[in-house]
Structure formats: structure tokens, C-alpha cells
Amino acid sequence: MLSELRKRARKAGLTPGTIVFAGEQRTDRVRITVTDFDQASLDEVEVAHPDDCAHYRDSGTTSWIDVVGLHDVDLLERLGGIFSIHSLVLEDIAHPGQRAKLEDHEDYLYIVVRAVTPDAESEQEEEQVSLIVGRNYLLTFRERPSTLFDAVRQRIRASRGRVRRSGVDYLAYALLDAVVDQYFVVLEDIGEALEDMEEVLLTDPGPECLEALHELRKQVLTVRRAVWPVRDMLNAVMRGESELFDAATLPYLRDLQDHTLHVMDIVENFREMQTSLMEVYLSSISQRTNEVMKVLTIIATIFIPLTFAAGVYGMNFEHMPELHWRWGYGAFWVVIAAVTAVQVYFMRRKHWL
């Protein structure tokens, strides 16, 4: 959260609509991949310049233009000029910290979602995905390469499902569905981690558990922050009167909304589970501390009368009858042993031991 505030602070004082990239600084080349298709044909090509995308704006086919990399501001401005994208929209695209939202600009819809994907180290990578939905074209903007949309590309290549028979609106739904599906993948990993953590807390809780619980809490909050605004965004799409989404696509959007609500329910359950595990951890640590204090208290209690007796006979008075008694030393230890035995017996009767 603090890093996002620092990135947004870079724009302080600038004119609204000024495009400033506020994400992770990169030096690699921006990749523009065009997937142009209809029911009978498919053409995939990687273009080197934004101008090569101009003829896809008014083509008779469905054109998906995927832009990976947001650090080239000049390229974004060039694409914005070709597809008549408002400068405020370009500003939001270049600032990867937006909430999920929908903006209707008549000729196109601007949709933002936040994708959460697992990485190789079982952690999470969060990124902003921006969609520009036109009449026969769809632009997607992502900050870094990922496998997020690979399944959709495979469906297009294999001509599976409705994606090749339908228009841009169904393609936009398919991409949003891929984002929501990744939430389930991430939550599955979190759920397994929570179950493992529960077993550890019940058997051998240690200091490392606290760090792991905080990391799980961070992951759950990341998914929650990403998915919560998606519900409102989908509601806005279905309530809107834009002609860019056909009525035949609305049932799929409602199904996607159900998946989103399911994700939200799981997230809330995991939050409660994480809170409960934290309470279990604190209770376990408290119980362990109490057991240690109990043992120390019992030891101290046993030695209190022994210390008293030893202190009495350690005094340097001249006239102490027991000091000159032949059996005084042995009697001292007999009394000490008897007192200890009585205390142990009493504590066992009280089930303190």
C-alpha cells in the first residue's frame, strides 16, 4: 500500500491526463501481439510498431491486441491516438494501481481488473489488467509477461467453445473469466497452507508460525482487495446500456458474477480461519508459558520450606541444641525429605502435578 502511494506521489502537481508510468521500472521492449480471427480464419502476429495496428480498428474480424509492458509512454500515446483513447484512460493504464472499474466512453468501454497469479515460489504476483473493448477490437494492457491468458489463446487456436463464433464482447468475458479463475488457483494454495498451519499449531507451534500467519493474512487481503470491486464492475456492465455487449453474452457475465461472489465467500472464510489460527497460536503460546510458570512455581513452592530450614540452621548462634546432637544432621535430612514428600503428595491429590 505504501509503495502505491509513493508511485502516485510522482504525479503530484501534473496536469490531469499527463501519462506517467508509475509501475516497476523496466528496460525490455514492449511486446504487442495481435490475434485476429473469425469463425473461419485465424492470424497471430507480433507487430513492431503501434502504427501496424491501425487497420485492425475497422476490420471485419475480431482483433485482440495484447500489449505487454507499460513503461513506454510514447507507445501508449501512439496507440491512444490510433484508437481514440481518452488521455485520462491512458493515464490510468500507465498507473498500475487502479481498482476494478468500468468506464463507458460510448465508442469503447474501459475495464480494469486486478489479476493475482501464483509464482514459482508459491507466492503471489499482482498486476493490473486494462481492457479497451471496441466494436470489433479489444486491447489489453499488462505490466509484465505471464501465462494469464494462455488458456484463452489455446481455445482460440483450437476453435473450442464460442470464442471464435462470437464477437469482442464474448472475448472480453473470456479474458475476465481467466482472471477470476486465477483467484481460485491462488485461494486453493492459500487453503492448503492454512490446513497445514492448523496441524502445526495443534502439534508444535513455534515462533516461525507467527511469520507464516502474517504472510497468509497478507495473501488473503491481496485477493480480497483484488476481487471485491470486480462485483461492482460486473454489475455496471450488466446494468449498462452499451451496445458493445450483446444480450447473448449477459448470461455468461452473470455466471462470472456468481464465480466472483463465490471467491468473495471463500476469502471471507479464509479471513475468519486465519483469525482463528492466530487466536489458536496465541492460546498455544500462552498455554506453553503457563505450563513453564507452573513447573517453576511448583519447584519454588517445594524449596520454600527447605530454604527456611536451611536458613535457620545456617545461623551462627552459639547455643543451638541440635548442632551438638549426634543425630542432628541425619534428622535434618529426614525432616527435609518428609516435608518434600508431603508437598508432592498434596500437589498430586490436587492434580497440580
Number of helices: 8
- Describe the biggest sheet? 7 strands, mixed
- In sequence order, what are the helices and strands, one letter per element? HEEEHHEEEEHHHHH
Q: What is the CATH first-level class name of the largest domain?
A: Alpha Beta
Helical content, roughly? 40-55%
What is the count of β-strands?
Answer: 7
- Give the overall shape, derived from the CA principal axes: rod-shaped
The CA-CA distance between the termini, in Å, is 51 Å
The CATH superfamily name of the largest domain is: CorA soluble domain-like
Strand content: 5-15%
How are the elements arranged and paired?
Blueprint: H1 2-9, E1 31-37, E2 42-47, E3 62-68, H2 73-82, H3 87-93, E4 101-104, E5 109-118, E6 124-133, E7 137-142, H4 150-158, H5 168-203, H6 207-239, H7 250-312, H8 328-349
Helix pairs in contact: 5-6, 5-7, 6-7, 7-8
Which short descriptors sum up this protein?
353 residues; alpha+beta; Beta Polymerase, domain 2; Methane Monooxygenase Hydroxylase, Chain G, domain 1; 2 domains; 7-stranded mixed beta sheet; rod-shaped
Compact summary:
The chain is α+β, with helices and mostly antiparallel strands and 353 residues long.
Structure commentary:
- By secondary structure, the protein is an alpha+beta fold.
- It has 2 domains: 2-284, CorA soluble domain-like (Beta Polymerase, domain 2); 294-349, Methane Monooxygenase Hydroxylase, Chain G, domain 1 (Up-down Bundle).
- The chain contains 8 helices and 7 strands.
- It has helices at 2-9, 73-82, 87-93, 150-158, 168-203, 207-239, 250-312, 328-349, and strands spanning 31-37, 42-47, 62-68, 101-104, 109-118, 124-133, 137-142.
- It has a 7-stranded mixed β-sheet.
- The model has no long low-confidence stretch (mean pLDDT 85).
